[in-house]
Every structure is written in structure tokens, then in C-alpha cells.
Amino acid sequence: xxxxxxxxxxxxxxxxxxxxxxxxxxxxxxxxxxxxxxxxxxxxxxxxxxxxxxxxxxxxxxxxxxxxxxxxxxxxxxxxxxxxxxxxxxxxxxxxxxxxxxxxxxxxxxxxxxxxxxxxxxxxxxxxxxxxxxxxxxxxxxxxxxxxxxxxxxxxxxx
Length: 159
Hints:
InterPro entries: Aspartic_peptidase_AS, Clan_AA_Asp_peptidase_C, Peptidase_aspartic_dom_sf, Retropepsin-like_bacterial
Oligomer: single chain
Pfam families: gag-asp_proteas
CATH class: Mainly Beta
EC number: 3.4.23.-
Distance between the termini: 61 Å
CATH superfamily: Acid Proteases
Number of domains: 1
Protein name: TIGR02281 family clan AA aspartic protease
CATH architecture: Beta Barrel
Organism: Pseudomonas neustonica
Structural class: alpha+beta
Radius of gyration: 18 Å
Order of helices and strands: HEEEEEHEEEEHEE
């Protein structure tokens, strides 16, 4: 009985610590939205590495975005794009940190972060793009006002 109690305690501790680590990796799993008279704001906290990750949606599918102001467009890993049913458009070459790679254009009907909703967003499907995060590039960010404030990132959509 004592062994079972210890095993249960260890399992609970492992479960709790995995949640802590996940929240440290992405502190914006449930982003709060602030509604102003003419705008919606979402304030993002950086993770331990200083990156801004935030959970959101593409066409009703849950995704994790990595805010990347250096990316020209929203970049979706090919495997994730296939799961979401995104259609591949014209082929083009993408400059990545690992060199040049092929990509395919696509359009996102709906992109959502908190209560910020963007429609008909230009995106790219990038085969060979590692990870499961979607790079939130300038094709989406240029539709918003964004600024750094006290180490946090403020996204604002005017209505």
C-alpha cells in the first residue's frame, strides 16, 4: 500500500511539474482580451527565452503561434497544414534560418488570438519546418498595432 501511495504521489508530482513547464514555455495559453471603445487588445508575456508564444486558432483549429516580426507571412508547418486541410497554392522559395526551402502559398479564412480576429490572411505552407508552432509573421501583424511595453507585447486591433 505504501508503494502504491508513493507511486501515485510521484505521478501527481510529474503531472503538476509538466504543467508548470508548459506554462513557462507558453505563458499565453489562454490570452485575455480587453475591449476598448474602438479596439480589442491582447497583452502577451514572454516565455523564459524571451519569445512570445500564444495559443490561438486558424480556421477553428487550435494552434500555438510564435510571434515573428522578421517573417514576411504566417508560416505553417506542412504536417500541421495537412491536418487543418489547408490548400497548397503556387510554389515559391522561402528563406529560412537553415537556408532556402520550398513553400506553398495559401490563405487563412480566419486567424484568431483571444478576441482579435483576422480574415483572409496570406500564409505559406512550409515543408520541412520543424516544430508545431505557426510563425505569426507580418502578413497578420501588419493588420494590427503592436508594441512592446514593460517587456510584454501588446497586440491591438482597431474596429
